# Entry
Amino acid sequence: MAEGIPGETTRSTENHGILRRTASMIPLSVWLIVPVEIILIFLLIAPSLISIWLSLVSWQPTFGIGILAAKFIWFKNYIELFTDSRFLWAFFRTFYITATCVFLEFLIGLGLALLVEKTLPLRKLLILILILPMMFPPLVTGNSFFMLFVSEGPINRIITLVLGIPFKFDWLSSPTYAIYPIMIGEIWQWYPLMFLIMVSGLRGLPPNQLHAADVLGASRWDLFWRIKLPLLKPIILIAIVIRAMEVIKLFDLIYIMTRGGPGTATENINLYMYKIGLKDYRFSYVSAGAWLVLIASVIIFVYLLKPLLHKVGESDPRTEEAK
Amino acid sequence: METRPYGINDWARTVVLILISIVMVFPVYWMVMTAIKPLDEWLKYPPVWFTLRPTLDCFRSILGVLDKPIDFGNPGQAAAVPAILKGLFVSVSATFISMGAGSMAAYSISRFRIGGNFLPLFILSARMFPPIAVVLPLLVMYSNVGAIDSYWGLIVAYAGFTLPFSVWMMKSFIDDVPRAIEEAAIIEGMGNFEVFYKVTLPIVKTGILVTALFIFILNWSEFLVAFTMCYDRVETAPVFLASLFSAVCGTLYGPQAAMGLIIVIPVVIFGYLIQEHLARGFTFGALKR
# Structure
């Protein structure tokens, strides 16, 4: 690639030499991140800057003007958001869904991990079966749970069989209950990740401490609460933050199961932004909303990860703690 | 792990786990069952738990190889094949770009600590943005360069969105390679880039394969970006599945389930191939095993 082409003029060869010399002055480490930098500039930095600008102006694609020609209105979009009850509901619903789902996923994951901690008959096979839901694309999970929860679906039938009285309920059309099938779908899909993380966390616990506690006569209850859980804490925090990051972005499941409906009863922040932004074309308003969500989630993540960052100080928590 | 005879306690645990597994597998079972049910059993109540007349009509209809296709009531009938091929093309291309850029950066970060702690965390922050927040400005940018509803536009977007995974995952694999090997190669007279290309990359080739499959799965399953940035020309498999849910189609449980299964099958196969590394992938390389 860097070979000079024969038959070229001396001038271009000279140029080539200069280029080559300049190129060799830049270390390899810098060259290697060039592609990533280009992609990041194009897909992270530029959109962020445009998004910040959009959030401070009043602009819609239907205005027919460039975004730079839009009227600058400072924080009006943000102020309007705080009085928009639909946005606020979507905002709180997002954090409600996230907190509930992540917590339940964690409980199920940890419980299952404790069950398979020791050798068991069929242990490997059972682990493989239990992680199956994780492989499902979220959209297909939505598809599958939609079919389970329709009023003629198997869930209603199972409830009928258990209760012994005819039970028919249109889950996905109920403003109060439509959120639960969605949350169950989300939990079903992602408990396997928590499970895998906890299995690997439990396997990585220092055997000496566990053995010592065992010899000293600690009960299994004490062993779990006083030794295993505190030792697992960093991994648990990382897992929770990683899951929370994704659940806040939940979209596919809700879109396929209820489209945020009935009305706006199951709208989370992404459905809201999708409807207002891409159906009503209120680009600047939605951009302002997106920044509020991002700020809120960063505050929560930093708060969650604080004990971890504190403990390991300067070094990177991911590589240090999670072995 | 010590080997010991199984006690009553162990069997009890296994039984509990088997029961839980049955509950967890039920949604999958129901999807498979719906996909192979004949038309008149889709909506029956009480539901048909196990069909005695299995048929592949739904698959044939979706793929457009049935003589008398089931009427979907929309013009998108039998469009699954183009959607699958387009989705495949976009996912594979984006995986290549993401892997190429990602592994180079991962090497640089792992070996030269370039960008200190900031660069890797900055790359990671790409995962924190609400997707719509990125899609809207991207739409503005794309409309200026005519990239909306284009293959390259979607490919670049996918490559960017999976970059945090490729960088962090490859970094965790490269971190595992002892530096002494590379140092020996340098003493032998190899250039820096040669060491990366001829020594390090071949050593981590399992890691490359695992990461690539992982990223392919993410791209292949992605819905929101494809759905919002493309209209008709570039339709990926999940977008086609979502179009089967439109009001005109009504309750097409059979074809929906069949299309869902078509999307899921490659993911499950690849997923099980790399199952040891799934936790590593989703935790951005924080968990090694």
Notes: Chain B has a mean pLDDT of 85. Chain B has two domains: 8-55, 80-282. Chain B touches chain A through 106 residues (CB under 8 Å). Chain B is about 65% helix and 0% strand.
